[in-house]
Amino acid sequence: MLAWRMRLLFALLTILLLDAASAQTPPPSAPAPLRAPGISASGISPNDDRVRVDVTQMPWRAMGKVLTNLASSCTGTLIGPRLVLTAGHCVYKKALRALLPVSSLHFLAGFKSGEFAGHAQVVKFEHAPGLLPYLRGETKDVQDDWLIMVLDQPLGDRFGFVLPAVTPLYPGVKLRSAGYGQDHPLLLMADLDCQVTRVLPGQPLFGHDCEVTHGNSGGALLVQQEGQWRIAGIVHGVVALNDRSSLNVAVDVSVLRDKIVQLK
């Protein structure tokens, strides 16, 4: 018990130091090119439409920080009492060409300014069979970049959770997105006015124009359906298309509905 608390404290201190350093570092003269999986700071437009949101209010309180003992972090969303949805690449250790063990993974609910309202350890996770081949560069199956984590505490009963979207997406559908980006790792920042820009035929993927950056990976793209906010997609990153263009892509959560029901 003491060991994981010390590792968690170390990870949080590392994030605090990184946040202080980023605040003192001037922006680069030219943004670096985007890569996938994951996204860089240049994923934010010059106008930066993001705003700080209240992590005590829904749907934002269902979101939190996915933290590893290596001090790396992403964004995750409660989709059930004990389930958190995030991106598969968030738990990948490139040097080992393997996923991190569940014992090194944590979910922090209500995270703000280095403090959090709830903590849970991950006890297991589920992912697509093709996740590791994709992360190792053996396939181009971006749709496999998802991960469902099972927690040791029912944080969803306390903080609430969001359900998957129920109707198909199409270009022009309004979205909201939030995450702990690398430029604001201690605050949940949201883009409240973005949309679906493209639906990729035959693939559970869609493009969007939401303001996202590294750290937002795994975060939710929310859509208003049946009078409530539902999760439509998982932030993945920028991918190159066959026509040599690039697209900010999310994994469509509709393909995970059966898996989510199975795990609940």
Write the layout of secondary structure elements.
Elements: H1 2-24, E1 51-52, E2 63-68, E3 73-78, E4 83-86, E5 92-93, E6 98-99, E7 105-109, E8 118-127, H2 131-135, E9 147-151, H3 155-159, E10 174-179, E11 189-199, E12 205-208, E13 220-225, E14 228-240, E15 246-252, H4 257-263
Antiparallel strand pairs: 1-11, 2-3, 2-7, 3-4, 4-9, 5-6, 7-8, 8-9, 10-11, 10-13, 11-12, 12-15, 13-14, 14-15
Structural notes for this entry:
- The protein has helices at 2-24, 131-135, 155-159, 257-263, and strands at 51-52, 63-68, 73-78, 83-86, 92-93, 98-99, 105-109, 118-127, 147-151, 174-179, 189-199, 205-208, 220-225, 228-240, 246-252.
- The protein has 264 residues and is of the alpha+beta class.
- The strands form three sheets. It has a six-stranded antiparallel beta barrel with strand order 10-11-12-15-14-13.
- Strand 11 and strand 12 form a beta hairpin.
- The longest helix has 23 residues, at 2-24.
- The two termini are 26 Å apart.
- The model is unreliable at 15-41 (pLDDT under 50).
Question: How many strand segments?
Answer: 15
Helix count equals: 4
Rg over CA atoms = 17 Å
Order of strands across the main sheet: 10-11-12-15-14-13
Taking pLDDT < 50 over at least 5 consecutive residues as the criterion, the unreliable ranges are 15-41
Give the class from helix and strand content and strand pairing: alpha+beta
Helix-residue proportion:
10-25%
Which overall shape is indicated by the principal axes computed on the Cα atoms? globular
Main pleated-sheet profile: 6 strands, antiparallel, barrel
- Average pLDDT over all residues: 85
Task: Give the DSSP E fraction (strand runs of 2 or more residues).
Answer: 25-35%
What's the N-to-C terminus distance?
26 Å
Order of helices and strands: HEEEEEEEEHEHEEEEEEH
